Amino acid sequence: MTKAWATFILALAGIYIIDQNIKTIFLSGWQWENSCISLTLVFNKGVAFSMFSFLGPYLKWIQIALLAGVLGYIIHGKYLQRYSLPLGILFGAGISNIADRFIHGGVVDYVYWHCGFDFAVFNFADVMIDLSVGWLLINSIFLKKNMDEKV
């Protein structure tokens, strides 16, 4: 169990540090643009596609409660042993975005895709959240399939 906690904490810290350092670059005023992607600073007051922005300052507290609930669930269900790396990535990214809400009043986003269609503005933490959720879904589907085949 110690190895699982170490993996979880190192992944969490690594993603948090990487994300906050990338955001610092954009907070300093750096920008770049071409015909498909703009790298420019935006503060997102909501979640994906600015949903729930009407919740204002309550959103960060709701997100903290959700992360705490998920942490309790994974500890109680002993999922940390099996999924420590993707869960560490998920929590590191989530905590980084929540920290932005406390420090900057909104999540620091900077990647705007506009090649062929307009897409939401997002950041490294958002990509890591998507990656870790996909990883967890794929693992749970294949592990369940393997367990079903053994029965």
Description:
It is a single chain. Helix 2 (58-76) packs antiparallel against helix 3. The chain has one domain. The two termini are 27 Å apart. The chain is α+β, with helices and mostly antiparallel strands. Strands 1-2-3-4 form a four-stranded antiparallel sheet. The chain has helices spanning 2-27, 58-76, 80-104, 124-150, and strands spanning 32-33, 37-44, 107-113, 121-122. 64% of the residues lie in helices and 13% in strands. Strand 3 and strand 4 form a beta hairpin. The longest helix is centred in the C-terminal third of the chain and has 27 residues, at 124-150.
**How many helices does DSSP assign?**
4
Q: Classify the secondary structure makeup into a structural class.
A: alpha+beta
- What is the terminal-to-terminal distance? 27 Å
The averaged pLDDT comes out at: 89
Give structural attributes.
single chain, 151 residues, alpha+beta, four-stranded antiparallel beta sheet, 4 helices, 4 strands, 64% helix, transmembrane, hydrolase, cell membrane, protease, Lipoprotein signal peptidase
